[in-house]
Fold these 2 entries.
Entry 1:
Amino acid sequence: MSAPARPKKHFGQHFLHEKRYVERIVAAVAPRAEDAVVEIGPGEGALTLPLLAAAGRLTAIELDDELIPALQARAAAVGRLEVIRADVLTVDFAALARRLGVPRLRLAGNLPYYISSPILFHCLAHADVIADMHFMLQKEVVERMAAAPGSKIYGRLSVMLQLACTVVPLFDVPPGAFRPPPKVDSAVVRLTPLPAEARHRADPARVHAIVKAAFAQRRKTLANTLKGVLDANAIERAGIDPKARAETLDPEDFVRLAQVD
Ligand code: SAM
């Protein structure tokens, strides 16, 4: 067997080596033979091979082409692995689902932390073709995703994720489980997109613009932060006090703000 690759910092490479966490992730995903599982960032295959063993086929998206030949060689005996050499942010999941002949994909991955938010927003934009997502992220990001109104860490990520998915933090993973260890704690989260009717009640671009403006200066009132987007009358017509601050609004309030004429 060839020597393990030297992990590349600029690709956010921290390879999971503790088997018990691999097992817990695979048990959480619980892939079935009929699933189209897509792994983001397979790296050396810590999750790929066990997921592939359970699913029988798997599509993996990896940016670092140096890792791909060894991964393919190791997978050959396990099942059908397709590796797409690409930046995941350029992958059209709707086209991928069509090509794989399924209505929805199941995504999984120990994400590269340097672009975890862009990846999450890219996945949200494709929520119609995603059945669920199991992601390893920085623990602090998982906490922000699941945060409730009133909490200091409740913000843009919490609102946008909770309007699109159920967010279930599953378990924490310490730095020592990776090679090399990251500087931060990690956690695994399950995201399940809500039914389309629940996600399409307001124009997503409008919701995003309002949420972004409202949290840009979180100590200021909505009348102030939303000035360029909505006037105080419109905020009132949505049934919301213009003197309130973004951090006190629940995700549904942002939908109402986006729906008001
Ligand atoms: N899944 C492996 C594991 O658990 O050991 C590796 C996880 S490592 C944290 C992140 C992986 O994502 C690396 O293999 C890295 O090369 C890959 N990666 C980084 N940026 C990427 C991108 N934009 N698109 C696809 N893969 C990327």
Entry 2:
Amino acid sequence: MTSPTIVWLRRDLRLADQAAFVAAAAAGPVIPVYVLDDETPKHRRMGAASRWWLHYSLASLDADLRKRGSRLILRRGRCETVLADLARETGAATVHCLRHYEPWWRNAERAVGEVLDLQRHHGNYLAPPGSITTGSGGPYKIYTPFWRALEARMPPAAPQPAPQSLPAPAAWPASDNLADWNLLPTTPDWAGGMRDEWTPGEAGAADRLAAFLPRARVYSERRNLPSVSGTSRLSPHLHFGEVSPAALWHAAAERGGSVGTFLGELGWRDYAQNVILQMPDYAGKPAREAFEEFPWRDDPVGLKAWQQGCTGYPIVDAGMRELWATGWMHNRVRMIAASFLIKHLLIDWREGERWFWDTLVDADYGSNAVNWQWSAGTGVDSNMFVRIMAPLTQSPKFDAAGYIRQWVPELAHLDDTRIHDPDVRPRAYPPRIVGHAEARARALAAYGEWNDRG
Ligand code: FAD
């Protein structure tokens, strides 16, 4: 019998439009494997919400594989050691995978490539990160010209259907038991809201997409309104690779009409990968280096109030509570909440990045860091620091009354006008931790002093 081929899965937990499976199945028997690496130094450990998602996504992929005569092998440890051991045990000579661009995955791919024949394929982005270059061949730093160049290369190749069956090896190697990985929270079990909201896995992604497509035409009008279902909520599915961006592009584009804004958001996802390819430390270092000297405040009380949704600003608190309950937050509200932490509280954006990393089900190294640096004004392409979002103005502007009512029950009895900025605060709702005018003046003064020094 032909020796088997390993498919090394990471954030590409799908069967459809998965080039690694296509290439491996063409060569003979396939051994799909997921390696949980909590050992390698500098391998950023997945946050708690992501680990919850991962558990169910792996279970779903295993069930889908079993319907095709295959199964998912689970192993723990350093990728290069685990994959080399697996190859030795099974006689596999080649490993196929999709390429990933987080610095630790690039290191892992290098290490695996040194000990095995590693074949890397494109598939998790619209275009391979690093391939969209300026006229002089350099990488783009700014989103708009990047998007123009990317769009000119679209559409992506048509997506491949999932294989009907996958050739199995003569004998299956041993696998860990998923439950033994303890990816799910137990004491306390804080994942109830996430279970209600999400169905991790390829079928869950397909359902989300089917629900969104009829609304794709009105995306540009509704995407900024947190009280309505205006966006796709596909971000965790995209992050874990349960749907390919190419499949999404074709499905949306086939709808016709004005889906350009939606496709442009997918472009931001590609853009973020291009940024971390150029600046791998993007989550830890401001792109504008002078910001390393910025006088951020050390304010554990303020940070905790922000994390717990107890700032006294209804729109900020609604967002932070939605995040805690469901592992997701509406994009407009993410921008408001991020601005509040950075400008109103003058807390280092990296604290926010870390909190989102731990609590978002779509926590993504590139997208999270790029958006935090955008909000802070520290990034290569970013909002200016002195642009301070006023939460009490943003809230009525984007019609957030229904959203606040859902997530801040203490305010649910207030009418659509008073709910954004209650003049008489219900006793159960926390007082404002800082006044808006005072916070704004403090932020501008800190910026001014820092700027003068620089
Ligand atoms: P839709 O509006 O339906 O957009 C479709 C897809 O495009 C999304 O699923 C996502 O993959 C991509 N996308 C949309 N907006 C952006 C964006 N600004 N940057 C990059 N990709 C985008 N997104 C993440 O996927 N992971 C993160 O860790 C993350 N952290 C963020 C942190 C901050 C402070 C902010 C302001 C934004 C962050 N975003 C992040 C971007 C954005 O908020 C989410 O992608 C979006 O809310 C997901 O909802 P959706 O799937 O309904 O998006």
